[in-house]
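From the shared-data thread, chain only:
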Amino acid sequence: MSRALLLLLAWLIASPASAQSRYGQSGEDRGAPMGRFDFYVLALSWSATFCETTGKRRSSTQCETGKNPGFVVHGLWPQYERGYPSFCTPGGRNPSQNAMDVGMRVYPEAGLARHEWQKHGTCSGESPAGYFNAAGTARARVTIPKQLASPESDQRMSIVEIERAFALANQGLRPDMMAVTCKRGMIEEVRICMTRDLRSFRPCDEVSRDSCRVRDVIVPAAR
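Structure, as tokens:
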């Protein structure tokens, strides 16, 4: 094999295009090139479930009385058709205080905002403030169904009912564009797939397959 051909092969392996060998495959693509993804997933966490299963044990400020309104933003996640990038390179700078001021208008806690920036925001191609603003834009795009806005008592709903409620409240949203996850028999999150420009919802087979397989779940009351 000639020296020129060897050099060409070495360049191809080291070039950004080599990321195509991972791009679009299932699982976490840690250290992927920033800005390379297909769509976003807006993850809305049911705060009362988080507090019941994890938050109280961590003494999370999110779980203080009166700070449990129902759905809160867990994250805005760049996603491949199969798999997702994380902790992208080159590494993003730490959010400034001005950026954190933006983040705190979207996320329930500063620690969560910082974590989401490092793991997912670095993959967006945005600055920290730009990423937090994008998360806020995505959240504003989604209408929470009336029966899930801030229930005062526990209720039981089927996964199909939850999906249907979100679809009816949001024009253009269908069950194959979202996932409803659960934990310990309670609703955990609703994950909604959106185009890169955040202007519309879009199908996402791999994400929607993550929906909880049980027939129904408990929706704990907002605290």
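Helices lie at 3-14, 47-55, 97-103, 110-119, 128-141, 159-169, 205-208.
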